[in-house]
Amino acid sequence: MPTSSKTVLALVSAAVAAVLIPACGGGGGGGPEPTSQATGGAAPGQGTGSGPSQAQLVEQGRQIFRFDTFGDERQWTDTLRMHEVIEQAVSPNVALSVGLKVDADAIPPEVAAAIQAGQVDLDSPATTVTLLKLDAVVGVKGEVQTVDGVDRLTRVGITCALCHSTVDNSFATGTGRRPDGWANRDLNPGATIALSPPVDSAKKAAYNSWGPGKYDPRFNVDGISKPVVIPPAYGLADIHKITFTGEGGGPGDWDRSVPAVPMGGQGSFIEPRLNLSITNGTQDLVSSKLAALQAYQLSLAAPAPPPGSFDPVAAARGQLLFAGKAQCATCHSGPTFTDANARLHPPQDSIVEPENPSYASRSATKLYRTSPLRGLWQHAPYFHDGSAATAEDAVDRYNQGRGLGLTAQEVQDVAQYLKSL
C-alpha cells in the first residue's frame, strides 16, 4: 500500500531539492542549458569567433529539441490553461495512460527506489508536479513554485520531444531512457488537448476522435479534422522533403512551421500558397535556434531493427520482390528509399486515396511525398492516416489495390524485408 501523500511528498521533495538546489536559475521557455535567443548572443562555451563546431551545434540542438518550448507557454498556459488541468487532475498514471513518457535518467536514485518500493503515490497529481520539477516528463516543461510549502505548477509548455521522443521502458512501462527522434505512437494529443477548460464541445469531440499516435497539424488553421500519424524525426539526412505532403526543402522548414503553428511558440510562419501568415507574440524565439535544431535532427540515424525481429531468409527473398514484382523500388528508391528529392506524387498515387477529406488537398503542394523506409519497424501503423496496422497489412494493401499478383508468402517476404531496414 502506498504511504500517505504527505509522507510521499516529503520523501520525494527532499530528493528533488538535493538535485535542484545546485542548479537553480532556469527560466521559462528554455532548457537546462542556455541557448542563444533571437536577440543574439552566443551559447556558453561556444565563443564568438568562427561560431560553434558541428559537435557543439548538435549538442545545442539536442537541448533545444528536448527542453525548449519556444515560449509556447502563452498557448498551453495562458490560453488552454493546461497547468490547471495537470495540477488538479493528471496523476502519473493518467499521464502514462495518454502516452506521456517519463525520462528515468532525470529521476534521482532515491525517488526511483521509492517508486519501485511502492512508496510514491502514482495516482496523485502532486507527484506529476514533482516529476515536472525534475524535468522528467518527456517533452513537457513546467515552472514550479513553492507556495506556503506546497509545490504549485504555474506555467507549462511543450517541446519537440513530446511527439518525437519516447522511452525504452527499461524502468517500467512508459518510463526509461529516451531515444530522440522516435515517433511516440502511444501519445494521444487530441485527448490531452480536449482536457483544456476553454475548448468548446465541438472541438473536444474532434480532438477525442483522433486516437493515439495521431495529430492534425492543420486543424487549428483550417478547422478540418483529418489527423495523420506522428512521424519519426530520425533518418532525415540527405532527404529534402520532410512532411507527408513535401512542403519546404528540409528539416529547417518543418522546424520553422511546427513551433509557430501546432506548438504555439513565439515566432512567425508564412506560407503564401495557403494564404497563411501566423505570428505569435512580439518576439521571435524560433529563428535563432533553427540551425542547431536541424543539425541535431540530421544527426539522428534511423534505428537498426532489434535482433530476432525479422526472418533474414524471408527478407532476402523480399528484397528481390521489392525491386521487382512488388514494384516498391519504383518510388522507394536509392539509399534513402524515397524519390522525394526528385519528385512529389499526385494524390491518386497514394494507396490511401481517395479519402475524404484528402490530406493532400489541405496542403500547399496538393501532392504526397514517398515516405522513406529505414527504421520502419519502429513506427507502426503505416501510411499517413495509420490505416495499415502492420508491415504485412501495408504490403497487402498495395498488392490488392495495384493488382500486383503477390502470393500470401510473397507478401510476408516483402514485409520481412521492410522490417529489416
What would your notes on this structure say?
This protein has 421 residues and is mostly helical. It contains 16 helices and eight strands. It has helices at 5-20, 54-67, 73-79, 82-89, 92-97, 109-116, 125-133, 161-164, 189-193, 201-208, 219-222, 251-260, 290-298, 312-323, 391-402, 408-420, and strands at 102-103, 140-147, 150-158, 175-176, 214-215, 228-229, 268-271, 276-279. A hairpin with a 4-residue loop joins strand 7 and strand 8. Helix 1 (5-20) runs antiparallel to helix 6 (109-116) and helix 1 (5-20) runs parallel beside helix 7. The protein is globular.
Features:
single chain, about 425 residues, mainly alpha, two-stranded antiparallel ribbon, 16 helices, about 35% helix, disordered N terminus
The outline comes out as globular
**Strand ordering within the main sheet:** 1-4
Poorly predicted sequence stretches spanning 5 or more consecutive residues: 1-48
Structural class: mainly alpha
Please compute the radius of gyration using only Cα atoms. Answer: 22 Å
> What is the ordering of alpha helices and beta strands?
HHHHHEHHEEHEHHEHEHEEHHHH
Mean pLDDT equals: 88
Strand content: 5-15%
Fraction in helix: 25-40%
Distance between the termini: 46 Å
Enumerate how many helices there are, as a single number. 16
Largest sheet: 2 strands, parallel
How many β-strand runs?
Answer: 8
